[in-house]
């Protein structure tokens, strides 16, 4: 009986020793490493610090929104408006550079005489006959008139037409009482083909200026252009 009691006490002592040797469970369990074979040695202080900084940054971004940039002002550059051309009196018709009017003297065709007949108002023909006595020929007198007034031909042509009358319902239409009948008469000249080519260029140039000055007006021709030049060049009637 004494032996049984002694073995029982020995078993109790053995159980107490085994309980004392087992470590108590940790209050902070260690996370299991993700990779196989990796050793776990408790919580990582560096990882905890990185996580804490990320949480602080997230809190700051939520609490303090990014400043809003003010809208930039765009400077708008306005181009100057094109000037409007108003109807102006015929005597103020603009003059501009003449087109090239040279005659090719090496071209034999330019020296061929080409008899031409013009239609000139009777009042101008009467003045022409008076000035003809001191001129070498009909043709030279016409050429001198065109040479002296070439750059003013658009204004001279419009000046002989009914001009705009301020306050009139139809400003470009002359009334029956103011119409002066000036019967056109033939005027024969003998220019060369080169001189006729210069006259044609002057007619085309005058038409381009007349259309700008008075839109819708009828185009001019060689006879009207010569009549306007002679009217300005010849002495006034006695």
Describe how the helices and strands are arranged.
Layout: H1 2-21, H2 45-63, E1 116-121, H3 122-132, H4 138-149, H5 153-159, E2 184-189, H6 193-213, H7 222-233
Model description:
The chain is mainly alpha-helical. It has a domain at 114-164 and 180-233. 43% of the residues lie in helices and 5% in strands. It contains seven helices and two strands; from the N terminus they run H-H-E-H-H-H-E-H-H. It has helices spanning 2-21, 45-63, 122-132, 138-149, 153-159, 193-213, 222-233; strands at 116-121, 184-189. A two-stranded antiparallel sheet has the order 1-2. The radius of gyration is 56 Å and the shape is rod-shaped. The model is unreliable at 34-41 and 76-95 (pLDDT under 50).
Q: What is Rg?
A: 56 Å
Shape descriptor:
rod-shaped
Figure out the total of helices: 7
> Quick check: average pLDDT?
75
Strand share of the residues? 5-15%
Distance between the termini: 182 Å
**How do the strands of the widest beta sheet line up side by side?**
1-2
Subunit arrangement of the protein: single chain
The ordered string of helix (H) and strand (E) elements is HHEHHHEHH
Largest sheet: 2 strands, antiparallel
Helix content: 40-55%
What is the tally of beta strands? 2
Output the structural class. mainly alpha
Instruction: Give start-end ranges of low-pLDDT stretches.
Output: 34-41, 76-95
């Amino acid at each position: 009986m004494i032996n049984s009691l002694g073995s029982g006490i020995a078993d109790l002592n053995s159980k107490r020793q085994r309980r004392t040797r087992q470590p108590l469970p940790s209050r902070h369990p260690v996370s299991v490493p993700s990779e196989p074979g990796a050793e776990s040695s408790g919580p990582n202080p560096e990882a905890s610090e990185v996580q804490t900084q990320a949480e602080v940054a997230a809190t700051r971004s939520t609490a303090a929104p990014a400043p809003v940039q003010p809208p930039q002002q765009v400077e708008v550059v306005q181009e100057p408006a094109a000037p409007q051309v108003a109807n102006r009196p015929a005597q103020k018709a603009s003059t501009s550079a003449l087109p090239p009017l040279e005659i090719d003297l090496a071209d034999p065709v330019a020296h061929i005489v080409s008899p031409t007949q013009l239609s000139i108002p009777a009042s101008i023909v009467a003045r022409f006959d008076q000035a003809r006595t001191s001129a070498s020929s009909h043709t030279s007198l016409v050429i001198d008139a065109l040479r002296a007034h070439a750059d003013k031909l658009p204004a001279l042509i419009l000046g002989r037409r009914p001009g705009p009358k301020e306050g009139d319902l139809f400003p470009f239409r002359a009334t029956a009482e103011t119409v002066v009948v000036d019967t056109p008469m033939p005027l024969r000249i003998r220019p060369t083909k080169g001189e006729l080519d210069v006259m044609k260029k002057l007619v085309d140039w005058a038409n381009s200026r007349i259309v700008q000055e008075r839109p819708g007006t009828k185009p001019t021709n060689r006879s009207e252009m010569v009549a306007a030049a002679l009217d300005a060049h010849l002495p006034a009637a006695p």
